[in-house]
Amino acid sequence: MHDRDARNAWFKSTILAHEPALRRQLRRMSLPAVEIDDVVAETLARAYVATDWERIDQGRSYLFTIARNLLTDAARRKAVVSFDLMADLEVLNVVDGAGSAEDAVSVRDELRRLQTIIDSLPPQCRRVFVMRRVQERSTQEIAAELAVSTSTVEKHLTKAIALVTRALAEHQPPQQKSGPSWRKVKETR
Questions:
Q1: Which of 73, 70, 63 is nearest to 94 (CA)?
Q2: How confident is the model at residue 117 (pLDDT cuts 50, 70, 90)?
Q3: In whole angstroms, what is the distance from residue 47 CA to residue 64 CA?
Q4: Are the CB atoms for 63 and 43 separated by under 8 Å?
Q5: Is 104 exposed, middle or buried (0-12, 13-18, 19+ CB in 10 A)?
Q6: Of the given ranges (56-65, 87-96, 137-146, 173-182), which has the lowest mean pLDDT?
Q7: What distance lies between CA 162 and its chain's CA centroid?
Q8: Measuring CA to CA, how many Å separate 12 from each of 6, 69, 102?
Q9: What is the pLDDT of residues 74-106, one digit of tens each?
Q10: Tens of pLDDT along 47-77?
Q11: Distance CA 182, CA 109 (A)
């Protein structure tokens, strides 16, 4: 019984105290109220059943990480992932004492710039690029769906990557920014 009381005390002080902040952040992401309640409930449930709960002392970071992972998993189950949603998910990547609002805004701005670049691609290149790089589908699957050869898919993908790379290079500032970029954030996962 003592272990249960200790777990409850830990949960109330370390985890539950950050529930309002989590709800605020989820509302900023424009999620429907029902979905916010589901995400918060599942996040709190997963935090409560943590087996190594005694070692968790950064409750906010732990809670936001669980929520981000839940939303990321839900987004992956959908066919197309919105770049805005992924940018908003990065805001939930909170490490207590590290990172700043400026870093989160910088990542979100880079993702929006990438979305603009992708939107400007020729239609077939854009479609192939999104199917391959966002939906992570194979070139054979894409070829079958578009009724073209895999060689044609590879040519469209090569062209899209070249155009995206060139557009990113043209918009790159002369000095590297100090905050994390979407590339670095993606690599750390």
A1: 63
A2: confident
A3: 10
A4: yes
A5: buried
A6: 173-182
A7: 24
A8: 10, 22, 30
A9: 776 664 555 666 666 666 665 555 555 566 666
A10: 888 888 888 888 899 999 999 888 887 776 6
A11: 9
Q: Where are the alpha helices (DSSP H) in 1-138?
A: 2-10, 19-28, 33-48, 59-77, 83-91, 101-119, 123-129
Residue with tokens 């043209």: 170
The type of residue at 78 is K
Task: Report how far residue 103's alpha carbon sits from residue 95's, in angstroms, rounded to the nearest whole number.
Answer: 12
If one counts every other C-beta atom within 10 angstroms of the C-beta of residue 87, the result is: 22
Q: Tokens 């805005």 map to which residue?
A: 84
Q: Which two tokens stand for residue 115?
A: 């979305």
148's tokens: 């073209």
Q: How far apart are CA 109 and CA 155, in angstroms?
A: 29
Tokens 């529930």, located at residue: 19
Angstrom distance (rounded) from CA 129 to CA 141: 13
Instruction: Give the torsion through C-alpha atoms of 59, 64, 70, 71, to 10 deg.
Output: 170
Tokens representing 47 are 């935090």
Sign of CA dihedral 145, 148, 150, 154: negative
145, amino acid identity: E
